Here is the input.
Amino acid sequence: MSEFFERNVEVIQRRWPSLSERLLVEDASLLQADLVEGLGSTLSINGIQLTSRHDRTREARLQADSLPVDSPVLHVYGTGLGDLQMELLQRAGLGRLYVHILNGAVFALVLQLLDQQQWLSDPRVELLYAGDLAEIQLPFFALPAELVLADDFNAKIRDRLISETHLTFNNREFDPQAPDIVERLQASLGLVQADHDVAELFGLCKGQEIFVIATGPSLEQHFETLRTILGQAERPLFVCVDTAYRPLLNHGIHPDVVVSIDQRISARHLPPEDTVDITLVYMPMVDPQVLAAWQGPRYAGYSASPIYQQLRRQVPKGELYVGGSVIHPAVDLAVKMGAAQVTLFGADFAFPNDKTHAGWSDGDLGPQLKAAKHWVLDGHGQRIKTQLNFRSYLCELERFIAGHPQVRFYNSSRAGAKIAGTAFHPELAS
Here is the structure.
């Protein structure tokens, strides 16, 4: 045990005794640590530099400048080498600085190598593991290196941090004045005016169970079960997302409701044949040719997106929640219809068994397996491949679930991402 470590841990033991016990069992020996030199020096962990190797202080100053000067409470995610903490603690108006550990082993290693007593001893500092809280705290700065190095325990918070950081970039495509959006909404106007209001469906299934079916690879485990349940007199309502519709049809399963929101959905995804008894719930960005060809009842609704602001005033309709994926309005529809229990199928947010979707070839629905550079934890606690937007969709679904504690949410599979707020279905999840 190094002299630095003893002194650093002494402070932590005094101020946060239970946290110090956790730190003492972190295994820093599993990390590949190297000194990297430039105009200055820094520490590289598993090939990732914790800070600049040229001017750590200037870098910390730039990071600090991104946070509001007048905020009495700030949050730093990742511990780094202590530079950002020291910079922020120079602010006289700062009353509390929360430092959230993203990788316990990395922090334990830094405690062995560098003196961190000054910021650890400051009475304004609160130290905790990021994963101890279910949600991110604002305003924050997340140290980029530790977003990459985040360990399994803190992975859910890492995903929320990255999703929040990318929010503005991800929303760039949804400009209400964009010509393609204006043109599509104008083309859909007549259908929206003539079709039912999605709000007419709200409350129709009070106290019932609803199956919400997405297109993740784990759906393939359940085709036979779903077909059997569909034939029962007393059964849950089947609500599926648009891309799950064709794979379900191919296995003899006709859902009760299909939900579609995406302008890229075509008749290839939603073939109109034999749809007389199937309800289509849609948002006006869906191709009007696809809508017009649908033989069954159509119900229009909106999201909170600014692109629907004018149309919402012109033709009032009910609203469904959208967090980037069609899974969100499908789940919200189930809740607003009055479901007491929602069971998710194919809600994987990842690529289990090295597949992207059930019933579609690699790349048919956009992402290819080779594009999967990120990971989430599955229902077995193992890392599985995914991509950033899937992690963002997962975060938003988990937030939605947390906001509806009156509904029981079940996940039908452990193969995909573990979804906070759901339980594994006792009969369906293997």
